[in-house]
Design brief:
The protein has two domains: 58 residues, no CATH class; 263 residues, Vanillyl-alcohol Oxidase, Chain A, domain 3. The chain is built from twelve helices and eleven strands. This is DUF8128 domain-containing protein. Keywords: Membrane, Transmembrane, Transmembrane helix.
């Protein structure tokens, strides 16, 4: 490090860390990059650049280790896939599903620091699914063995006559590598178009204001799924990750302050507070010595009555109220996937895709939250120009594997939805509204035998 390095006829003396502060040294290096980039790179490393390289290596090592132990711990977990059938005569509404998801949020159990970094423990997820296998519909919930009792209790509390059966994983019956000789696939993930502090439409928005009748937004999707024929399958999945509510509440409050023109309080760290102390002391001494204060010193005093929140339009007030209402509901982090898989001879994605996208559009609002199919990086897309077929085949395989693993990290980032929003996106059939003929339901309610039944 004590050697001098010649860069474009400019002598750069070997030295210490403070040479980083000398602009002349950096000019010399930049000039040298054009003539001898290897020597310039060596100068960068020898004069402290190695610290950055070490930090990058440690960062990569940190997350490689976390990924390794997390994958190892996940492989040991036991998961159960539960099929749910409700009686034909069930008259429960989406409010029951809302309550059910609020109860399931009790599964939030974040790992401690040691559990996360030494044992690879992560928060268990709950996955909601609706599938159609050749037109036969089934509601499913997949969860860990640890949360099975919680999930079943949540269902039975709202649907006492429901039948819950553990079933085999249907996703193992289709390939996860494409192109495939027998099957083709189309899939996507739904992503928000703006901040998830804004809400989607909830089940309350689909109740007729006059008659009170519930216009089920899932009805069109269930009808389309029931029309699939031999060799066709359709999978609809919502992965729920129970979370701590503080982060979302802070996010929503920040969005409200932005909309109402309020200034968000700036939190200073210890160094900034220490640097501010002498300035504050001098300001106090000056105020005492010369009198006055903010008004006398010419400083602008904030007037809360001049805040933009007093001048909001009716539509803007509605948006703020909607965010506050969402903030009051229990939130999950969510991933939403859709897959259509069929044999080559019957593969017709238009048969189900438009119905799915149309069903999802019912939950969108131009002034609040909307969700859309992701086609830029994850979903199968016709807009790809270079290596279109190969890239789409790669995306198909990744989507199938992510769906099969019920992954809450593969693909697009998770986003926040409240229990009322999720209840609109996934709910057990409101039998009086949904007429899909191949939707599986139990034939009758279960009941206890009368107490006076005679015994031999």
């Amino acid at each position: 490090m004590g050697e001098d390095i010649l860069l474009s006829d400019v002598r750069v003396g070997g030295g210490g860390f403070f040479e980083w502060l000398d602009p002349g040294q950096w000019i010399s290096v930049l000039v040298g990059l054009g003539d001898n980039p290897l020597q310039a790179m060596w100068w960068f490393i020898a004069h402290g650049g190695w610290v950055i390289l070490v930090l990058i290596f440690l960062w990569m090592l940190k997350y490689s280790w976390l990924n390794y132990i997390t994958s190892k711990a996940a492989a040991k977990k036991e998961w159960v896939l539960l099929a749910i059938d409700v009686p034909r005569a069930s008259e429960q509404t989406c409010k029951a599903i809302d309550n059910m998801f609020a109860h399931m949020a009790g599964g939030h159990s974040p790992p401690t620091f040691l559990e996360k970094w030494t044992a690879g423990h992560v928060q268990d997820t709950i996955t909601l699914e609706i599938i159609s296998i050749e037109g036969h519909l089934q509601y499913l919930i997949r969860t860990s063995s640890k949360l099975r009792d919680l999930v079943e209790a949540s269902i039975y509390a709202q649907y006492p006559e429901a039948e819950i059966t553990m079933v085999e994983d249907y996703t193992r019956m289709v390939p996860d590598q494409y192109p495939n000789d027998l099957y083709d696939c189309f899939g996507t993930e739904m992503v928000p178009v703006k901040s998830d502090a804004y809400p989607l439409k909830t089940y309350l928005d689909f109740e007729d204001s006059l008659s009170g009748e519930f216009k089920d937004p899932l009805a069109v999707l269930l009808e389309a799924m029931s029309r699939l024929g031999p060799g066709e399958q359709c999978w609809y999945q919502i992965v729920l990750t129970p979370i701590d509510q503080k982060a979302f509440v802070a996010k929503a409050q920040k969005e409200i302050m932005k909309l109402t023109g309020q200034k968000a309080p700036v939190k200073k760290n210890l160094v900034e507070k220490a640097l501010d102390l002498p300035i504050q002391a001098m300001s106090t001494v000056a105020d005492v010595a010369f009198g006055g204060g903010d008004a006398a010193s010419g400083k602008k005093v904030d007037n809360p009555l001049q805040s933009r929140m007093w001048n909001l339009t009716p539509g803007e007030r509605k948006v703020v109220e909607a965010i506050e209402k969402k903030m009051g509901h229990i939130q999950y982090e969510v991933k939403l996937r859709f897959l259509y898989i069929a044999k080559h001879e019957v593969f017709t994605k238009s048969k189900i895709l438009q119905s799915f996208v149309g069903s999802m559009k019912q939950y969108n609002s131009n002034d609040l939250l909307s969700i859309k199919p992701e086609g830029k990086y994850i979903g199968v897309s016709s807009a790809i120009v270079l290596f279109k077929e190969r890239r789409n085949n790669d995306r198909k395989g990744k989507l199938v594997r992510a769906y099969r693993n019920r992954s809450n990290w593969a693909g697009a980032s998770r986003f926040h939805l409240g229990t009322d929003e999720i209840a609109a996106l996934w709910h057990l059939p409101v039998v009086m509204q949904v007429k899909a003929p191949q939707l599986k339901k139990t034939e009758a309610k279960k009941a206890e035998p009368p107490i006076n039944i005679p015994f031999a």
